[in-house]
Amino acid sequence: MGKMKVSCVLSWLCSCLALWSCSLTLRGCEIIDEDPGSTTAANLTTAAPTPTMAETTVTGSAQETTAPTTTTSATTTSTTTTTTGTTTTTKAPLGVCWGGQKYDGAAGECSEVELRGATRVISNTCAYVALKGGTGVCWGDKSCGADCPNIDFATEVYATELAFLALNTADGSGVCWGRDESTNYYGENCSGLDFTGITHVYSSATDFVAWNSNSGTGFCWGRNGGCTDQDFTGITQIYSSSNGFIALNRNAGTGFCLGKFAHRHYCSRYDFSATDLEVYAFDDGFVAGPAGGQYQSSTMDVGSLASGSLTGTTHTYSTDKAYLALNMNAGTGVCFGDASKGGDCSQIDFTGVTSVHATEGAFLAFKKASGTATCWGDIDCSSVDFTGVTDVYSTIRAFLALNRNSGTGVCFPTDASDDDCSQIDFTNVSHVLYTRTGFLGIKSDQPDRLSTAGYRDHFNPFVVPS
Ligand SMILES: *[C@@H]1O[C@H](CO)[C@@H](O)[C@H](O)[C@H]1NC(C)=O
Ligand SMILES: *[C@@H]1O[C@H](CO)[C@@H](O)[C@H](O)[C@H]1NC(C)=O
Ligand SMILES: *[C@@H]1O[C@H](CO)[C@@H](O)[C@H](O)[C@H]1NC(C)=O
Description:
The protein has 466 residues and is mainly beta. The chain contains 2 helices and 31 strands. It has helices at residues 264-267, 455-459, and strands spanning 4-5, 38-43, 78-83, 95-99, 120-123, 127-132, 135-140, 156-159, 163-168, 173-178, 200-203, 207-212, 217-222, 237-240, 244-249, 254-259, 277-282, 285-290, 315-318, 322-327, 332-337, 355-358, 362-367, 372-377, 391-394, 399-403, 408-412, 431-434, 438-442, 451-453, 462-464. The termini are close together. Bound molecules: 2-acetamido-2-deoxy-beta-D-glucopyranose (3 copies). The site of one 2-acetamido-2-deoxy-beta-D-glucopyranose has 4 residues, from loops. Residues 1-18 form the signal peptide. Residues 40-86 are annotated as: Disordered.
C-alpha cells in the first residue's frame, strides 16, 4: 500500500498576481512585489473586472499600470501606483475570498486579487505565497509572513503555521520568513542552513525537517531547535504530524522522533523493530504497532482501539480531538477520541466514500458518485444538498461544498457571519485554498498548471502501513 496523504483541508482567501504588489488598503491584503523597485498599491476591495486590459508584461522593468475606472453598481476598483518610474497593469481579479475576517488578520480580509500566471499557491494559517515563473509574492497578515523576501526561482514553498520556507533546489538555497525571525518559534529563521541536495521537506506546526534521502543526512529548525544529535543514515521514511515527526529505518527496525516528539518520553513508547510495523499519522501524532497487535501512541488515547483494528487503513483524518482511520478500499472506518468532536463513527456508512474533510470538531464523509455526504461531531449537514457537488473543502470552522460545473457553492455552518458564502460568485473557481478560518477561491487563467497546498497539507498525516 502506498503512502497516502490525508486531505483534511482547511480553507482560503485572496488571490494575487505575482508581478505586482497589491495592498488592500482598507481590508489589509498586502502583496509584495518581486521587483523591489516597484511598489504598487492596489485597492482591491471590490476589484471590478477589467477585461479590456492587457496582460502585465513581466520581462521588462517597465510595467504599465492602468488604474481601472470601471464603475460597477457596487464599488469602483481603484489602483494606485507608486513606482520608481514604472507602471503596472492590473487585470481582472481571479480570486474570491471569505471567512477569516476575525481570526486570520489581513489574510481573511482580502477581497479580490489577481493570480494570473500563478502555478503554485501555498498558505499557512494567515498568509499566502504564490509562485509564478520563478518569482513569488505574498499577502495576508504580517504576523504570518505576509512581508516576504523576494523569492527568486524558488522550487517550492513549505509552511508551518506561521512561517514559510522557499526552497531553491537548483542552487541549494533556502529562505525562511514568518512571524518573528529572532525567536524562530515557527521555523522562520533558516539562515546559514545549506539545502544542497535536500530531497524532502516536512513540517509540523512549529518545525521543519529537511532530509537528503540520497546522502542520508538531514537537519531541523524551528521551535524545537536543530536535531544535530540525530543521525539520518539509513532512514527510509519520515512521517509528519502537526506536533512532530517520526524518522524510521525500516531495514534496521529503528527510528527516532523529531520536533516536539524529540523528547524521549514521547518516542519511547514506540517499538520500531517489528517487521510488520504499522504507523498511522494524525494531526496530533502517531499510532504505531505491529500488524494485528496492540497500538501505542504518545499523544492520543488508543485504549479503545482493538488490536489490529487499523490494519488496512488507507487515509487518516483528524479534528482537534478525534481521529478517523478510513479504509477506502473496504468502505470502513474506525474513529477514536472525543465522541463530541467526531470520535464516534460507529453509525456511519463509509461505503463509497471518496473523501473525508474535517473542521476542528466535525468530520464530513463525501460520496461523490451518489452526491451525498454525512457529517458527525459538532456539525450537522443533513439539510445540505450535495447533489452535483464536485469538491469539498474546510477550515477549522466551516465546510464548503463546491459544484465546479455549475459554479455554485454552499458553506456551512454559518453561525459566524463571515463563514457565509452565499454572496460569493463561484463561477470559474478552479482551486480552493484556505487559512485557519478563511477560504480563497481561485479563478485560475491556467487551471491545468496551477496546484495548491494548504498549511495542513504539509504536516498532515501520512499513512504508511507497509
Ligand atoms: C479604497 O476603496 C475604498 C472604498 O471605495 C475607499 O474608501 C478608499 O479610500 C480606497 N482606498 C484607496 C487607497 O484608494
Ligand atoms: C537567525 O539565525 C541566525 C543563525 O542562528 C542568527 O545569527 C540570526 O541572528 C538570526 N536572525 C535574527 C533576526 O534573530
Ligand atoms: C468564466 O470564464 C469564461 C471563459 O474564460 C469567461 O468568458 C467568463 O466571463 C467567466 N465568468 C466569470 C464570472 O468570471
